[in-house]
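I am writing to request your help with a piece of structural work I have in hand. Here, with my thanks, is the record as I have it:
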Amino acid sequence: MKKAEEILDNITKEKKENTIAKIKKEELSSFLDGWVKRFQKNTNRDIFVIKWCYFINKDWYLVKGIERKESVRNTKTLLDIFIMLVDDVSEKEDKDILLKELLKIPFDFDNYNLDKLTEEDKEYFKFTEKAWKKIIESIKEYPYYRKIKDLFEFDVRQLISAFQYGKLITKNSYNMNKEEYWTYFPQSMQIIINSDIDLMCKINFDFKKIGSFREAVLKAQKMARIGNWLTTWEREAKERDFTSLVFPLLKNREEINFEKFKNNPEQLINKIKNLKIEKELLNNWNQLQKEMIQILENNFSKDIQKRFEDKLEYLFYMHSISRGNK
């Protein structure tokens, strides 16, 4: 069981460069090719972030015995695209109307109102809706879709709540607080939804243990969010995006006027570095890892415990080496 600091200490320049090179060389499937081209047309995101997701999704299963692996990999990556499309809008101060309609896509599709959208926003909406419909079309074909459907829909509703909370921070940075960051923002990391998709294709899963399994996955999801927070907050500070936990942690240490830093992000970045706020997040990752392993030890085989450990260490490594690239 490696601590977060040990994982970081083992990342050499050569290892990082080799992994980044492999990700950049990754060839997307023909299924994703058209989606990614449309994605690039509608956003400013680099294709690296899609390849990064696709690279990880090749073997991102917290349990063994998954059927339809290539389809699952494509579906998870398309879900990554859908989440990025909505997330990008939630962080823009002038896109309230578009966000309101995007958040209707999963469950409130009978009540769309696109009349107030610009033509550009209508195109963006239609592409996002089309991506979601394809995701649902794919998972409905999975063997245990009906068994997992209610959990999947519940988890998607939590994803929507993460976007809604993110919008509250975009509108007013004084809304930020540590407790709500932990409650809402991990939901957009997709780990729990990915596990739903896995179980739709899992042979012989003991559904009497689904509660304990989800409890462990939710710990893993928070660990994944920490990896994201640690490696994107500097870019986000420059973009006036204060959705990383480092910002409320800073606010807890001293009174901060975040409006002032919107025009001077480097000063904010230096303050966070000088106060070593990242260290607190590393401690959180280590604690969550202990709690996750305890749940697994009490309910599952050593094989599943080892798989969780390996996958979460790998994901933390992948977040860390991608710092500055996504």
The radius of gyration is 20 Å.
